[in-house]
Amino acid sequence: MAAYHRTGRVTAALTACLATVALAGCASGDATAPRAASPAPAGTGAKTDGGTVPEGQPDVNGDGKVVIGVLSPGDINDKGYYQSFVDTAERFATSKGWTIIKRGGVNTSEALSAARALCGQKVDMVALGAADLRDAIPASEEPVCADTAWYVPSSDNIPQTPRIMLSTDEADQSLLAAGYAAGLLMKEKGETKAGFVTGPEVDFTTTAARAFRAGIRLVVPEATLTVTYSGDLNDSAKAKEATQAQISQGVKVVYPYLGGATDASAELANANGVLTLTPGTDRCASTRPTFDVSVLFSPGDYFGAALEEFAEAKLRMGVEKVWRLGVDPFPTVRICEPTPEQEKRLETFIADVGSGRIDPKAEVKRLGS
């Protein structure tokens, strides 16, 4: 699904937006005080950067095994944002002989009790699948979660604390690049009308729409973007209704910035010869539906990097990692079947964002309205 970016991303969407495409754990359930953080391993810079590495990582609670607990507010079988997070955890855990405890569809009102329950099962990490579950964070300070690490997708209203690691990106970057890629395809076909279908009209979706519009206009200055807020990221019927309405208005590109309803929208776009993009994951190989652009800001990609550090006893609490387009492997954008010129122009654009030659915030302000 769409991820929730820094602005409240469901990250996402994407972040879905999703932005897009969302994380650490709780340990023993006894009432002892947390163990003191160990010095950072040589070269990690954990102490000097203000963070600390929990003692014993990855077996933070010292019980001889490693257990990762994952809580997700959405459908962990959505083939998108939420599923990518869980799939990454399962693949990594299997490769290391670790155990995964996962729970999807967690309501925000249940976040705190769900986190406590994970800690009661002696997990070493509680991983939140999206910033929606921020109400779980106080459990990180409670005795039941004394010896745990926490990985948390960030948003503007989540304060940094010494007991959690925050992971975030800049929605303007990936969505501006998504629009730029769509603009390249539209220019080749001589098209000027694009559509954006998403769920509720909230900060992360409105931010994503503005950035997507700005990116298109960097290539096709006269382009228009029709935005439809269906009210629900996962309701396929509403997504199809919104997509059909946009197609009837003549749009030739539709961005389903959705969760579980992504495929329903994309299949309708396919049936009408309309180009479409992914909200967070790489689905260029997908055959039903097909996608023309993969916009990659999946929480699973970010989480995988964090788990690598966790396995190496380098994952620091009390810090925030900001993933940057053109600097880190993710976020990024791929045109699935680009011409050589399109591929070169998109690569140059992404590199220019990474180097600072292009300021996404300034471009969104200039062209996003």
From TrEMBL:
Coiled coil: none annotated. Residues 65-274 form the ABC transporter substrate-binding protein PnrA-like domain. Residues 1-24 form the signal peptide. Residues 32-47 have a biased composition (Low complexity). Residues 32-64 are annotated as: Disordered. It holds the Pfam family Bmp. It is found in: Cell membrane. It comes from the Bacteria. Keywords: Cell membrane, Lipoprotein, Membrane, Signal. It is a lipid-anchor. The keyword Methyltransferase does not apply. Belongs to the BMP lipoprotein family. PANTHER family: ABC TRANSPORTER GUANOSINE-BINDING PROTEIN NUPN, TRANSCRIPTIONAL ACTIVATOR PROTEIN MED. This is ABC transporter substrate-binding protein PnrA-like domain-containing protein. It comes from Streptosporangium oxazolinicum.
